[in-house]
Amino acid sequence: MVQNNISELHKERLKFKPVLPAVLKKGIANIKPVLGKATKSVADFDKIKAIFEKTYGMPVVSFKSGKNVSVTKKIVKVGVVLSGGQAPGGHNVIFGLLEGLKSANKKNKLIGFLGGPSGILDNKTMEITDKVIANYKNTGGFDMIQSGRTKIETPEQFAKAKETILKNKINALVFIGGDDSNTNAALLAEYLKKENVDVSVVGVPKTIDGDLKNEHIEASFGFDTATKIYAELVGNIERDVNSARKYWHFIRLMGRSASHITLEVGFKVQPNVVLIGEEVLAKKMTLKQIVDSLVNLIVKRAKLGKNYGVVLIPEGLIEFIPEMKALIAELNDILAENEEQFSKLNTIDEKINFVSLKLPKNLSELLLSLPKNIASQLMLDRDPHGNVQVSLIETEKLLIEMVSEKLKELKKEGKYLGKFSSIHHFFGYEGRCGVPSNFDANYTYALGYNAAALVLNNLSGYLSSVKNLVAEPSKWICGGIPLTMMMNIEKRKGKEKPVIQKALVKLNGVPFKEFAKVRQDWAINDRYMFPGSIQFFGPAAVTDITTKTLQYEQKKK
């Protein structure tokens, strides 16, 4: 698949040469894997160990200098698949993977499975060569081989995947995906070991949400670029606010299960309000309390003559509000257990009535108290993992509606003399396929090259790890961590399933503490920042900066 439409920026980005960490720059034949101590899952040890009999407890791997000619003596064919939502830098992972394989043996081949994991099940492939990758280097999107959300989880699907792997004489398979996609990779690695199929399965950490991280995975790729894109958009809105001074902008940002994006964009643009879902959950805040806090600020600013402001809202906020979280959990179970009956209902009133009768009294009252459009959105089809699709729940509109009603009451009582005009926004897809920043272009290339080192050393069930990311790329540290190390048990569609545990914003972490120091100042004093667009050319202090979050986290060390 060749790209024919190339912009001026695209032409220039093709010339960018990603910088490899020093250890990888020596070539895969000149590095050796060093095995660390045995590991265990983050939780539910016995249950995870029982599921992953062959791959549980493997050691952390690091790469050090040393002759490793064995990787040059065999010719391998490696498959690669893009899984889940897009994130800037996916093409560079494949670029790095290809170059890593070729560095060991020019005859090694890279096969792309088309359309995500379904490409494995349907045996849809294409060979990725230097010529194919040429026009995709340092570009956004996943369009070279496309992505998909098919899950490989049933016995039939595992058998089909095995059949495709054997038919194509695949020696290793690299999954580029998020937590659910890499959970699938771990399950496939376990299955193939149990089937005595000598094929390595390795994952690469991808998600703009930033919730796939730990001490070995300091950042998931795409997060840096996406937050810079969102920060530009929000910064533009803030500049408009600073000019017009007459609207309250409620902006919902991508991030269904964690508030990392909202916190990072908050650091970049310094709006009046940054809602953090994890704090809402920890404080057990109700929807009413959130609304009251917003109303109090709006009234306070109005007294200062400031009938305007900017509010950042994480996409998944509604699931962090304890009462809403309980409601959604009950709805997930009810909809899973009554799928056939529910599908036959035609009107929203019928659906609300059907569900409300099956809910506990307090949750039934909560559902019935919500605006009908929000109640309807809470009952939309679940995603493949059985979760509510929070991107379809317009939390920003819900907050605007409730804030507006409260302000009307206060106005009648003479307690609010200001004017409340609101505009709502949702920034999600805008950030998923942007041209990767220099950081992400370097990081993804290194992740791919590092994945090649893992598969060539026949390591299976690992996630590609590149860390020390606040340093210059040559000083990054490379290796791999067992996917089972990140696992816990969660309930999906009413059943217990092993999944990679999502990394949430830590309220005792340095980034949140730094935010807590300044948010009252931001609320009143309009410290708006206007970061502008991603810079690809110019001084490194501008082009190569990484996230504020990562800088704060590494400062702690």
What does this structure look like?
There is one protein chain. This protein is of the alpha/beta class and 557 residues long. It folds into two domains: 41-222 and 436-469, 3-Layer(aba) Sandwich (Rossmann fold); 228-432 and 509-556, Rossmann fold (3-Layer(aba) Sandwich), CATH 3.40.50. It has helices spanning 8-14, 22-25, 45-51, 90-104, 118-121, 130-133, 155-167, 179-194, 223-244, 260-269, 277-282, 287-303, 317-320, 322-337, 339-343, 348-356, 361-369, 372-378, 395-412, 438-456, 510-525, 540-543, 548-556, and strands at 31-38, 59-65, 77-82, 109-113, 125-128, 172-177, 200-205, 248-253, 273-274, 309-314, 422-427, 462-467, 477-482, 487-492, 495-500. The strands form three sheets. It has a nine-stranded mixed beta sheet with strand order 1-2-13-12-7-6-3-4-5, with helices on both faces. A four-stranded parallel beta sheet has the order 9-10-8-11, sandwiched between helices. Strand 14 (487-492) and strand 15 (495-500) form a beta hairpin. Helix 4 packs across helix 20 (438-456). The mean pLDDT is 94.
Question: What are the defining features of this structure?
Answer:
Rossmann fold, single chain, four-stranded parallel beta sheet, alpha/beta, 15% strand, 2 domains, nine-stranded mixed beta sheet
CATH architecture of the largest domain: 3-Layer(aba) Sandwich
CATH fold node name of the largest domain: Rossmann fold
Annotation field: number of helices:
23
Tell me the domain tally: 2
State the CATH superfamily name of the largest domain: Phosphofructokinase domain
Largest sheet, if any? 9 strands, mixed
User: C-alpha Rg, in Å?
Assistant: 24 Å
Query: Can you give the helix content as a percent range?
Result: 40-55%
Major beta sheet, strand line-up: 1-2-13-12-7-6-3-4-5
